[in-house]
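Reviewers asked in the last cycle whether our approach scales beyond single polypeptides. To address this, we selected a multi-component target totalling 535 residues and predicted its structure end to end. The input consisted of the following lines:
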Amino acid sequence: MSQLDPELEDLLGPLRDGPIALSSAEQSLALRDRLLPAVRAAAAAVPLRLRRARALRRGAIAGSICAAAAAAAALVLVFDLDLFRSPPLAETESVEVEPLGRESVTWIDAAGTRRELAGAAALATPGEIVNPETSWSRLSTSNGVRVEVAPRTRLRVSADARRSRQPELRLVLGEVHCRVPALGQREQFSIATPDAQVIVHGTVFSVKVGAPDDPRTCVRVEEGLVEVRHRDGSIRLGPGAQWGCAQPAPSRAAIDEPRPRDRRSARRTPVAAGSRPSEDIPDGTLEHENRLLAAALAAERARDLERARELFSELLASHPDSPLVPEARAGLQRTR
Amino acid sequence: MFPAADRAPARPKHTDPEIVAGLTRGEGWAAADLYDRIQPYVERTLRRVLRYSGAEYEDLMQSSFERIIRVLTERSLGGACDLPTWSSAVAAHVALDALRRRVRERKLFRQEPMIESLRANETSPERTVEARMDVDRVQRIFGRMKLKHAEAVLLHDVLGHDLAEVSELTGVTVAAAQSRLVRGRKELLRRAHRERRSS
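The resulting structure, written as structure tokens, was:
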């Protein structure tokens, strides 16, 4: 290190030598409690992954045949595209389900056998979580996705035969709150609902589906960027944005059971039971708001501050109740 | 590799090879032992490179552990590197990914990350801001560099691994590791100059 170019030394010095704050013993213990289940789940998935890798190696045939098969499979996928199919949830076929309240959670496996879960359990997919009247539960996958499932919710976790037998997630009824870690460029997480597909690459958000007679979807984003594909197209939602929800966000007072003790829960967007899709914001408005914000940000990046101010102001004037208002205000301040 | 720890890692109940063997069998005790053995190294690496805490930091800790388990069960331990060295290298990779993602997200939303400030040791507000900007600048450059170059510079010049370790950790020959390091340093300087000019 001593032979480093002085300029490099200046550049790297702050990163290399600057003070860093480490967790206290108490924080470390608390972190251990929070992370260890996921680390255990990742370890539990290792034998299966290794078996698969060995099987793949054994099954490797001539490259050209594989390439042709892959191309054919890709064609099938492209032309047989199911808009509402959920991509892989985890790399394995097992998930962990943990009841978070006093009541047990029901797991119905592929054979239709019902199993009452009183504590955390590792379960092989496919299957369906049926939550009790007042208790929440948590579903965790080996790739770090955590889904908190609200009372009275039905959530299907199934194997997708067309996609390497990996599990997929489908919200039949109720609501879920998701925390998705960064999954890398090639992975994504999504939830399919009867009328939409919500796709993310690392964020915190919630999805709700109404009763069977009106099973429309409401998506609220707290952090990160979420894409919602629906019958009329797709829309990208930033922090604070929502799609298909009642406005404003209702309180969760109607839910009997308190949310899980996880400290992260407090930061998630609450969604009440009983929000009605009939009060939805028109999709067109949201799209327009998104477009305005995107254009304003693009103008700001291009240092066309006057244009950026114009667009931020237009967004504020034409959509004063938009969830993007805080971002527009911040943008306006930045460009003044 | 690291300065004296202010708190020692928990004493592992098993040796490194036993932990790895346990992981390949999917045993829970191996996951717990692995956590206790390497958590301080992973934490120091992530905090050294990223300087922030909070929920995102926890997510990155989790991602690091998952990647470490994957790496350890797909490659064999040995050579120049032990469990902490591997862990630190994997955490560095996770941190680099986070920096790159941060650069991409800034393009979208212009959100400044919550950099863990150096407030503990910086009494002057001006110095705090200056130090934060220095760190932010080099992080931004790392986030834009070619991954293999950034990785070599980070492992060698920031985290203090020697070339033999960098070569083993990145799966290339020592000569290739050295070449990446040299090119990486040049790229770092070039980007720093360009950034200075544009600002």
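Helices of chain A lie at 6-17, 25-44, 46-58, 63-79, 283-301, 305-318, 325-335. We regard this as preliminary and will revisit it once experimental data from Aim 1 are available.
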